[in-house]
Write a structure and sequence with these properties.
By secondary structure, this protein is of the alpha/beta class. The strands form 3 sheets. Strands 5-4-3-2-12-13-14 form a 7-stranded mixed β-sheet, covered by helices on one side. It has a 5-stranded mixed β-sheet with strand order 1-6-7-8-11, with helices on one face. It folds into 2 domains: 278 residues, Purple Acid Phosphatase, chain A, domain 2 (4-Layer Sandwich), CATH 3.60.21; 41 residues, no CATH class.
């Protein structure tokens, strides 16, 4: 039956995907980010929280895009689970505040029941932050379920043992001398497929995505998907560069970005130094990572350090990346089986204005 329906619906689904899953539009993204940021400031607790932070003592870890599934061949989180659990144990012991920045669960391809059954250990690790009042959960486009399903509250209580509200964003507001505000959201804002009204989001999460998964039709080729991600990061950077005293942190694209540069762009920026120092390890890192990114910004030498992206917790090699704020610094970190926690990039957050 699946093959029969696939033959009949293959072309219509590709047509619909092309029509409704358009590339992110700058105007839509700007409008959505402006509105969300204003809503959080004007009505804290509704769409997002305002959390005071001290640049000298505040400690936050931001992970996104785990895409927890049902532990089958299509579950990208499987390879990363051990690193994720190791990281959460470390940050819990170090008393960090955990911001889970969306697409934590893969609810386009799996039912909530399947995800709950197969991810008890990771949910328990996350619950420890909730018990300490140091956790906030943001929804993304692949777990829109948390924002629109009428039974989402019950599933969250069943998972974590207490009521958990899921937000669209969070604002870290400085509580000391620093004027720098940090605005965090998943980053799907402005995407016509997943950032519409209640009905459109419900349709995507509960009908459109399950239909695509059942028929095994992927309308996004790797080239198109990578192009869209790079464009989305560029637009997010443009928005952040026009703001005053605001850093923007997102996920969504699975491409780590630090101070507005992808890791590859920063490696390229330091490439001449690596050659001069005969740093073979850095040259090898460039060759390894350039397969993961399709473009380097033409202006990467002169970009304002205003945009950050967590990367993801579902890399095929089992590594996970995130953004860490602690000790007056903001860092791009990686957790791997070989090195555990590794700081890839670091800047003093107090000197970024």
């Amino acid at each position: 039956m699946r093959n029969f329906l696939r033959i009949i619906l293959y072309k219509p689904i590709l047509w619909a995907a092309g029509k409704f899953s358009s590339k992110p539009k700058k105007e839509r993204v700007f409008e959505a980010l402006n509105k969300l940021y204003k809503d959080i400031l004007d009505h804290p607790g509704k769409k997002g929280l305002i959390i005071p932070y001290d640049t000298r003592t505040g400690k936050f870890i931001i992970f996104s895009d785990q895409h927890k599934g049902k532990r089958n061949g299509a579950d990208d989180f499987t390879q990363c689970e051990s690193n994720y659990l190791q990281a959460l144990q470390y940050y819990n012991e170090q008393d960090f505040y955990f911001i889970n920045l969306g697409d934590s669960e893969e609810l386009w391809e799996n039912s909530i029941w399947q995800v709950k059954k197969k991810n008890k250990e990771t949910f328990e690790a996350e619950r420890k932050f909730i018990a300490k009042g140091k956790h906030i959960k943001i929804f993304g486009n692949h777990d829109l379920f948390w924002d629109n399903d009428p039974l989402a509250w019950w599933h969250l209580k069943d998972i974590y043992g207490e009521k958990v509200k899921v937000y669209e964003g969070v604002v870290l507001q400085p509580a000391n001398y620093s004027p720098l505000t940090i605005f965090l959201t998943h980053g799907h804002q402005g995407d016509a497929q997943s950032d519409g009204n209640w009905f459109s989001k419900f349709f995507v999460a509960n009908i459109w995505a399950p239909l695509q998964a059942f028929l095994r039709i992927n309308p996004n080729t790797p080239a198109y998907d990578a192009e869209k991600k790079t464009l989305h990061n560029s637009i997010m950077y443009e928005w952040s560069s026009e703001q005053k005293n605001i850093l923007l942190v997102t996920g969504h694209t699975h491409q780590p970005v630090f101070a507005s540069l992808t890791h590859l762009e920063r490696l390229y920026k330091n490439f001449q130094q690596a050659i001069h120092q005969k740093d073979a390890a850095r040259e090898e890192e460039i060759r390894k990572r350039e397969r993961e990114f399709t473009a380097v910004s033409v202006d990467y030498m002169n970009m304002k350090p205003s945009y950050f992206n967590t990367g993801c917790c579902c890399f095929s090699d089992g590594d996970i990346t995130g953004i860490e704020i602690a000790d007056g610094c903001i860092r791009l970190i990686k957790w791997s089986e070989k090195k555990n926690r590794e700081v890839l990039e670091e800047m003093d957050i107090r000197n970024m204005i």
